[in-house]
Design goal:
Number of domains: 2
CATH class of the largest domain: Alpha Beta
Largest sheet: 5 strands, parallel
CATH superfamily of the largest domain: P-loop containing nucleotide triphosphate hydrolases
Structural class: alpha/beta
Number of strands: 9
Strand content: 15-25%
Radius of gyration: 20 Å
Number of helices: 10
Length: 302
């Protein structure tokens, strides 16, 4: 058991990836400053050799570049499975993302050529790279959008997620998902929202998602909603300080419903807001909405 006021450092592996210009190098340097052993641009095929021998005394941070010839979603999945099989090794995928506009602006400011379009425009390379990473992005355990972030901001964000030193660094992730597509990886707690009335059966609400105020009002109007929400928030407010004292760096909660577009999204938004107001560092993501957006992008660029 760790002593009070200290965190438990559990050696593991953080696989860091994302499109060029989104902050991968900054994140890698931040992890190195936090005490991680860092290796950048490691081919996934060399990962088993790296982990042969005695377990590492420090956690590893591995930078993965889409340009490596063995990089891909299947190779990534195989690497995660291999890491999971090794006793005491926790593998997580950290994905640094940014909007197309932000990436274009960063390339414009630095006047760099995009590595996937050395003779073309940065936008051509950005579009190609984002398409290549769509499936990898969906595998991420932690997704950080760096739009509007300075390098200092991103370093601080990485510290909130991965600091292994002082207590108080617990970061909370709230996610929505569809049970049809299975549970997201890495969840610490899962709550089922399918007992709430479903906006899908209202023709006016069906095309919308849980971000819309009308959908949120419909979901919260269920007579069972208030008790469910309040008791879940109370449970989290009880558990989170305890996990923080035990040295846990982050805690991930998933809210699931049938389609992952209405009820789970609405509750994720409201719970994230409630915990943020209570002083917790909270990030949120909506797996199915991200998947739909990625599919639309693929069709548009295809």
């Amino acid at each position: 058991m760790p002593k009070s006021g200290t965190a438990r450092v559990t050696p593991g592996v953080v696989l860091v990836t994302g499109p060029s210009g989104a902050g991968r190098s900054t994140a890698i340097r931040a992890l190195e400053d936090l005490g991680y052993e860092v290796i950048d641009n490691l081919p996934l095929s060399l990962l088993p050799r790296l982990l042969d021998g005695p377990p590492p005394e420090r956690p590893l941070a591995l930078g993965l570049d889409v340009r490596n010839r063995d990089f891909g979603v299947s190779a990534l999945a195989e690497s995660i499975a291999e890491l999971t099989r090794r006793a005491g090794t926790l593998a997580q995928v950290l994905y640094l993302d940014a909007s197309e506009d932000a990436l274009v602006q960063r390339y414009s400011e630095t006047r760099r050529r995009h590595p996937l379009a050395p003779d073309g425009t940065p936008l051509e390379g950005i579009t190609k790279e984002r398409a290549m990473l769509t499936d990898v992005r969906a595998k991420a355990d932690i997704l950080i959008n760096t739009d509007g972030y300075s390098p200092h901001d991103l370093k601080a964000e990485i510290g909130r997620w991965f600091a292994t030193g002082e207590v108080g660094q617990l970061a909370v992730s709230i996610q929505s998902f569809s049970y049809k597509r299975g549970l997201p990886r890495g969840l610490d707690m899962v709550l089922d929202c399918r007992f709430l009335r479903n906006p899908h059966w209202d023709a006016a609400l069906r095309p919308l998602d849980g971000h819309d105020a009308r959908v949120a009002a419909y979901v919260s109007g269920d007579a069972r909603f208030a008790a469910f929400f309040d008791q879940t928030r109370s449970l989290l407010e009880l558990l989170l300080p305890a996990y923080r004292e035990e040295g846990k760096a982050h805690f991930s909660v998933g809210f699931g419903c049938t389609g992952g577009r209405h009820r789970s999204v609405a509750i994720t938004e409201q719970m994230a807001e409630a915990l943020a107001q209570a002083g917790w560092h909270v990030s949120k993501r909506h797996r199915e909405l991200e998947r739909i957006a990625a599919q639309v992008s693929k069709e548009h660029n295809g």
